[in-house]
Amino acid sequence: MTILIIEDEELTARKLQRLLTDVAPAARVVGMTVSVEESVEWLRTHPRPDLIFMDIELADGQSFDIFNQIAVKSPVIFTTAYDEYAIKAFRVNSIDYLLKPVKEDDLRQALAKLQALRQVLVGHTGETGTGGLDDSLANLLDYLRSATPTPVPPLTSTTQPPATFRDRFMIKQGQRLFSVGIEEVAYFFTRNKMSFLKTRDNHEWLLDYTIDELSHMLDPRRFFRLNRQVITELRAVDKVHLYFNGKLKINLQPVFDEEVIVSREKAGDFKLWLGE
């Protein structure tokens, strides 16, 4: 089975590739792309892969934009840190929707689901010859597009949180190790594909986690993921400004050295989190 991975965080892409090696040793990753533009070009110039793993939020837009520019002829498994795109994902070639960080059991189940669908939908075409394979794939995609999706319920204030969240992080500074308590954290952010912790007294420490992994470690009552780059603690939100097209502009304390924008889609959830 040939696989294309569309993911703009290199560390996350490599982790998925290693997980695939463990779960499906016969699978072969034939390409990795990081943006809508690069993905469309890859699909235009390479043979159709048997499966695509597709992150939703890419550097230059959402991966759904790929479907508007080219006919995607492969089944897709979406990977994302958010659950609000589930219904939209099932309207395209999606066979599954995995929340990051992707777990081995979830990946096994998704691949098993793909195999089961292929076996069921081969139908009368048989299993020999390229025509049979192409017809089977066409049947699978028709089924995926026409199937009524089962809605994935969004996270709400009544959702039971995990039993525990991280209450401290280990920091390495040279040959010294120490921990930073969660009460000291102002926000987490990424820079040059690396993740950092910013403390309330304006110290900055490198972490060995992606921003997606961090988003699952933190208590959502205290922390909110503002965008792909920043997760903030409630007390670090200094000012909130209305921005164009329903977006919000956030000032953090300590000051963050880049503009922090909350998308229109997340603005409502952010206001509720603040206590609107």
From TrEMBL:
Q: Which UniProt keywords apply?
A: DNA-binding, Phosphoprotein
Give one GO term, molecular function aspect: DNA binding
Answer whether the UniProt record assigns the keyword Transport to this protein. no
Q: Which residues form the HTH LytTR-type domain?
A: 169-276
| PROSITE patterns attached to this UniProt entry | HTH_LYTTR, RESPONSE_REGULATORY
UniProt entry tagged with the keyword Aminoacyl-tRNA synthetase: no
Domain Response regulatory stretches: 2-115
Q: Which SUPFAM superfamilies match?
A: CheY-like
Query: Which SMART domains does the protein's record reference?
Result: LytTR, REC
- The PTM 4-aspartylphosphate maps to D55
Source organism, top-level taxon: Bacteria
- Entry protein name: DNA-binding response regulator
Naturally occurring in which organism (per UniProt): Fibrisoma montanum
